[in-house]
Amino acid sequence: MKFIIKLLFFILFVSISTAQCPSGPGTSCDGSGTSLNLYWVGTDASNNGNWNTPCSWRVGHTGGVEPCQAPRSIDNVFFTSGSFFGSGGASTITINTQARCNNLTIGNSVNSLASTPTFSLNNPGFMEVYGNFNLITNINWNVVGGNTSGPELLFKSTKTGNTITTAGHIMGAIQFDGIGGEWALQDEFNAGSLNFVFGHLTTSDGVNDHNMNLLTFDSDVQSGGTNLNRILDLNSSTVTVSGARSNDRYPYNTTNAPTAQWEGRGTTPANFNFNAGTSKIIFPQTNIFIRLGGMDYNVITHTGTGQLYDHFGPTPCNIDTLETSGRLFFHHEHTFNVLKINSIGQEHNFFRHQIITGDLIASGNSCNPTSFRSEFNRLLTMPASVSAD
Q1: Euclidean distance between CA atoms 341 and 323, whole angstroms
Q2: Is the entire prediction scored with pTM above 0.85?
C-alpha cells in the first residue's frame, strides 16, 4: 500500500510540475538566440493557457525545459497528442495579443484525441506566421473576429517554399505581407477578407489547384510594390467572393466609396503580377461593388440578379468572359472577348468605353428588351455579330 501511495504521489507530482506554471522562468530556461522547437503543454493541469505565456511551452518535446520567452518569429511551434495529456484535448489556447511563430504544426496525433482543442482569439489579439501553416481537422479554429482593427492572421514570411494547410477550417481576416515570401495552398482555402500586400501566393500544390472561398479581396498597393514582389497565381482555381461590402476589413479610403467586395484600385501590371490562368471568379451576392483595376481576368461570373458595379479605375481591364444575371453599371473601361447577359429586360449603363472583341450574348424579347446606355458620349464597340439566348 505504501508503494502504491508513493507511486501515485510521483505521478501527480510529475503531472503538476509539467503542466502547471512555476512562478516564472528559472535559471534553467532555454533562452537560445537560435530557432527553438516549442511544444504546447499549457499552464494548468487541463493544458489550457495563453500563447504568450512562456511556461505554456516546452523546448524540444512536451517534457522539455521551459523557454525563457514566448514563441518568436524564428521559433517553430508544435501541438501533439502529448500536448493535451491532462485533458484529452478539451483545452483552450488563448491569443489576446500579438502572437508569433515560424512554422505552426498541429500533428496528426491530435486527430486521435477524445476531445477537441480550441484556438481562441480575443481582441486585440492576432497571429503572425513566418513559415509553414499546418492545421488538422480535430480542432476548433476560432481565431476569427477578435481583432477589430486589422487582420487576425498574417503570413509574414520572406522566404520561399512555405505551405498552407487549413483542413477545412474558416480563417478570419487574412493578410499576406512578406517581400520575398512564397506560399502554396495545399487544400481549399476559406477565409474572410483577404488583403494581398507583398509576396507570392499560388493556389497550386504542384499537382492540384485548390479553390478559394472569400468574403472580400483587396490588392493593397503600397510603396515599393512591383510585379516582382507582388504575385498571385490563380491557376485553374475557382475563387468565390461571397461577402457584402460591409465585410471588407481593408477600406481603400475613408471618403469616396471606401469598401468593395473586390478592391483593385491603383493596381496595374507594373505593380501586381496577377496571373488569372484558367480561373473563374464568382460573385454570388445580389448587388456587387468592385474595382477590378488594371488586371487581366479569365472568367468572371455574377450570379446575383442585382447590379454589378465596377467603380472607376485609371487603367483599362481585360476580361476573357464576363457573365451576369443582373445589370451592368461600369465606371471603368473594359475589353471583353465574350460578354454574356442572362438577365431579361435590364438596362446596362456604361460611363467608360467598352470593347467587345468576340461575342455579345444577350437574353431578352420584344416585351422585355435588353438595352445599353452609354453616358457622356462614351463608346460601346460591338462585335461583328450579336446573338440572343
Answers
A1: 6
A2: yes
